[in-house]
Structures are given as C-alpha cells and as structure tokens.
TrEMBL record:
Pfam families attached to this UniProt entry: FeS_assembly_P, ParA
Function description: Binds and transfers iron-sulfur (Fe-S) clusters to target apoproteins. Can hydrolyze ATP.
Residues of the MIP18 family-like domain: 8-82
HAMAP family: Mrp_NBP35
Species, as recorded: Rhodoglobus vestalii
Alphabetical UniProt keywords: ATP-binding, Hydrolase, Iron, Iron-sulfur, Metal-binding, Nucleotide-binding
Record family assignment: Belongs to the Mrp/NBP35 ATP-binding proteins family.
Signal peptide: none
Domain of life: Bacteria
Chain sites annotated for binding ATP: G121, K122, G123, G124, V125, G126, K127, S128
GO biological process: iron-sulfur cluster assembly
Subunit structure: Homodimer.
Name the UniProt record assigns to this protein: Iron-sulfur cluster carrier protein
CDD domains associated with the record: Mrp_NBP35 (cd02037)
Length: 375
C-alpha cells in the first residue's frame, strides 16, 4: 500500500463516521462518497453525491464530510465536490435500503416491531399529545421509534414535535420521514397545504396509510405508534386490515361519559382482530398548591372503560393515569414535548412510566418468523 492510498483509506474510515441525518446511516454505506484522493501535499479532494437536488441535509452533510476529512493526520486542505445522484444511483440506493426486499409493507406479520395504535372515542382527550410524548419518551430510552399520524381530521403530531411546515424528503419512490427528538415522523399533514381540511373518503385513506407503510423509509423500528382519528371510522378499520397484529390503546378522560365512548372504539379495534392492551386515562386530577387534587373531569373513567373492554380471555387494565398539566399543554403548543422540556413534571413522569409499561406488553416473538436484520 503506498503512502497516498493509506491516507486515502484513513479518510474513508473517518468519513464512515458521517451519518446522513435523514437516513441515519453512514454516508460511506449509502454510496454517497464517489471519490477520495489526496495529493502529495496532503490536499484532499472528496466527491460527495447527494440523493436529491435541494436535499435539506446537504449543508450538514457537506460540513461533516469536510470536518471528518480534515481530522485525518496529514491532511492539509479539503475540497468537497458536491454532485447529485443519477436516477439509476437513486434506484440502487433505495434497493439497498430495502435490503433487496421487494417493495412491500414494512410491518408484515414477521416484523419484530411493536405496533401500537392510539385511539379514542372522541376528540380532544389528548390522544395526539400523549402519542407524541410517549414516542419521545420511548426514544429517550434508546429505542428506535416511529410515529404515523393518521389523524386526518386533526393532524397535530408535526406541530407537537416541532416539525410544523416540515416536508419529507423523497428519494425516488422512497419517502424519508422527518426526525424530531430521535423519532421518525410521518403525517398526512405533511402532504397537504397548511390548514387544509382533509375530507377524504375511506378508499383514499386506506391507500394513504398503505403508502405510508410501504414507501416511508422507517428502517428497523422497535416501536411504531399510530395516532388514529377519534371514533370508530374508516382509518381504524383500514389499520385492522393492514396491521392485524397491532395492539390498541384507548385514551379516555376520567369522565364516565367519555369512558362509554372509549369503550366503543376499543370494541371496533377488537372486531378487526387487534388486541386491546389497555386504557390510558388522561386529564386526571391536577395537584394543587395546598396538597389537594382538583378533579376537573371527575374520576374513575379509566377504570370504567377498562372494565367494560375486558373479556375473560383478554383482561384490559389502566396502563396509566396522566394528570392535567400546564407544562404538558405548553410543551405541545411550542413543539417541545414535556418529557424533554420539563421531565420532572408529574405528567412527564407518568408518561415515562407508561412507556415502560407499554414495552412490557410487547408481544412474544415465540412462534413468529424472524426476519433477518443487521441493524
Ligand atoms: N394532561 C393534560 N393536561 C393539560 N392539557 C392537556 C392534557 N392532555 C392534553 N391536553 C391539551 O388538550 C388539548 C387536546 O389534546 P390533543 O390535541 O392531544 O387531543 P386529541 O385527542 O388528539 O384530539 P383530536 O383527536 O381531536 O386531534 C390540547 O390543547 C392539549 O395540549
């Protein structure tokens, strides 16, 4: 090995630490480094091939490539030549990311991902706020987490996670989900004009969710959370058909009327073959300065709903009771989840505990076909 090729190899090794922020893989693995050469004076020239024109991560990747090259001992100058992948190169990359699997649903019956659909009987009970916080809490514990916001009538997940206005990058037919707080997020809201009311009918919704499950590059996930529209509508039925092995949690408030409605949405999930694993009671008592607890929405709704959803074969428990919390609401308003912004807040603590409980309900892999995966 000549001196030059040794230093070039050292540059390549250093470049393997540069991660594409959207795909979350080293640029060297993604065939984005087309050339590395170093002249006698130590001047390095690196060819960087980006996936698409206007790649939002371009500046970050170029900066990281420059820094990783400059770090190698003996390098005196760095030039980065940026180009864009050809269609054939992009197709090869998407093929590689799919690991040679045909274009198909990523979360089939052999998937090891824990899939949890978050539903509620009616709107405004905090389903989206809890989904967003739960996802971030799970990611904080080191899990690989994705969220699909299928709440067509009130897609609020992007805003709750600080992704307001962010559009996903598209590489060929592959959609790269934006990442917030280490959570990969895709939402119907990212594909429609701002503040547009979506009034899609069932088949259109079905196709959209199918496309999310097929074309969005989530990579290997430990947990996929789905934020469903409130009620017992088309999306719940589509998901039951597309992901019959998903679990369902039902969000309700402590109000008894809310619990009745929550029960109905859980029953629909069960009719489509999903497993109802528990109830989350949200907006429970707000602790007061004098030590008393203000039960604005009454109490007992969570226990009620769980009892009504339970069957002898499938008992349903209350997984968590999340208190009313100003910090939780404020975090949602500014796109910084309370589990990040105020981790000591009682609601944040309850959400962390919920994340642990949820993981304990992961389905056993016994008897399931294991897909081979290297990451
Ligand atoms: N525990 C809580 N304490 C205080 N405010 C809360 C709590 N949970 C949710 N909220 C607030 O209640 C409102 C409704 O929450 P969110 O949008 O998450 O409900 P949702 O069930 O997803 O509604 P929809 O299904 O209609 O989108 C938001 O303003 C949110 O900040």
């Amino acid at each position: 090995m000549t001196a030059d090729s040794a230093i070039e190899a050292a540059v390549r090794r250093s470049l393997s630490s540069v991660i594409d922020p959207e795909i979350r893989r080293p640029v060297t693995e993604l065939d984005m480094i087309s050339e590395v050469s170093v002249d006698d004076a130590g001047a390095a020239s690196v060819g960087l091939t980006l996936t698409i024109v206007g790649c939002p991560a371009a500046t970050t990747i170029e900066r990281d490539v420059r820094e990783a090259t400059a770090r190698v001992p003996g390098i005196t100058a760095v030039t980065v030549d940026v180009s864009i992948m050809s269609r054939a190169q992009r197709d090869a990359l998407t093929e590689k990311l799919r690991k040679g699997r045909p274009k198909t649903m990523q979360f089939g019956p052999d998937s090891l991902t824990q899939i949890v659909a978050v539903t509620s009987g009616k709107g405004g009970v905090g389903k989206s706020t809890l989904t967003a916080n739960l996802a971030v809490s799970l990611a904080q514990s080191g899990l690989r987490v994705g969220v699909i916001d299928a709440d067509v009538f009130g897609f609020s997940i992007p805003g709750l996670l600080g992704l307001h206005g962010t559009k996903p990058t598209q590489v060929g037919e592959m959609i790269l989900p934006p990442i917030a707080y280490d959570v990969k997020v895709i939402s119907i809201g990212m594909f429609v004009e701002e503040n547009t009311a979506v009034s899609w009918r069932g088949p259109m919704l079905h196709r959209t969710i199918q496309q999310f499950l097929t074309d969005v590059f989530f990579g290997d996930l430990d947990v996929l959370l789905l934020d469903l529209p409130p009620g017992t509508g088309d999306v719940a039925i589509s998901l039951g058909q597309l992901l019959p092995h998903s679990d369902v949690v039902v969000v309700t408030t402590p109000q008894s009327a809310a619990a009745d409605v929550a029960e109905r949405s859980g029953l629909v999930a069960r009719q489509t073959g999903q497993r109802v694993i528990g109830v989350i009671e949200n907006m429970a008592g707000l602790p007061q300065a004098d030590g008393s607890v203000l039960e604005l929405f009454g109490s007992g709704g969570g226990v009620d709903a769980a009892a009504k959803l339970s069957t002898p074969e499938e008992p349903v428990s209350v997984l968590a009771s999340i208190p009313l919390s100003i910090a939780l609401r404020e975090g949602g308003d500014v796109g910084v989840p309370v589990v990040i912004a105020a981790p000591a807040d009682p609601a944040a603590q309850a959400i962390h505990a919920l994340a642990v409980t949820l993981r304990s309900h992961k389905r056993s892999v016994a008897g399931r076909k294991l897909g081979l995966s290297t990451n």
